[in-house]
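User: Is it possible to get a 3D structure for a protein together with its bound compound? The compound here is zinc ion. I've pasted both below.
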Amino acid sequence: MSYATRYAEIKAYNPHGLRGTLRNVALDGLATAYQVGGRMERALQRPRVQFLYIHHTFTDELAGLERLIKDLARHHSFISHSEAVERVRNGTIDKPYIAFSSDDGFKNNLDGGRLLHAHGISACFFVNPGLIGLQDMDSVQRICAERLSFPPVEFLRWDDVAELQRLGHEIGSHTMEHRNMAATESALMREDLEQSRQILTEHCGSVSHFAFPYGRFTDITPQSFRDVFTVGFESCASAERGCHIGNGAVPSNSLCLRRDHVVLDWPLGHVRYFLANNALNANAANNLFPA
Ligand SMILES: [Zn+2]
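Assistant: Yes, that's possible. Here is the predicted structure of the complex:
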């Protein structure tokens, strides 16, 4: 048993099949339709904060990350997660902004972190403190399969986390061990949030940001959303697509960030389509967890 080091191994483990092919054809069509009359260009120039998150930067994905950064830089300024949260909270959104984050804390995040740093970008890495430094192969295999639908992938160690911080990146919580909060009893949920914040604070200094595992609204309960702020986090991110536009101030404890997932081997035209679609459909309700 050994760790997967290439994205090709992940794709072989989770084949997309016909559904993936049809999705690609549909997205090609949508992206082409948006380019007519400069609609895509105008949408991407709209002032907004767009959060983008990745999970991994395997060796065969680093060129894709470089391509993505260069393409996004044509229309956007890159800002840290903290600055992005502040801009959404204050409604000071005067330009198109992108804030990068990465979830799950794989060891290969370090390569992505170094590349982002080389481009002057600060990202937020949402990690599971209970999985940092996990070495026991049976546990790694079980967690990766059950929680992430992955073959075994090596996790970051605490000295890797420290290096990410030295590179100017932020560290946030993603629960202790990637728990689905909608399937967790409420006392345990609160304990998990508190414990993850405490351990990350001990290792990393202050920790302000939280991102829900899985992250769809159906994976977040109203109670778990409130608890994130009660235990002391200052921001809370979902994994629902969308972006944020300026709309006056938003109280911290009602702001639920939208983030778009990106896989680095997707065609750039598809990423542009998702971002343009978010820009065209952005509204004030995007700032809130649905009541
Ligand atoms: Zn996750």
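Strands lie at 48-54, 77-78, 96-103, 124-127, 170-173, 209-211, 235-237, 260-261. Residues 17-35 form the longest helix (19 residues).
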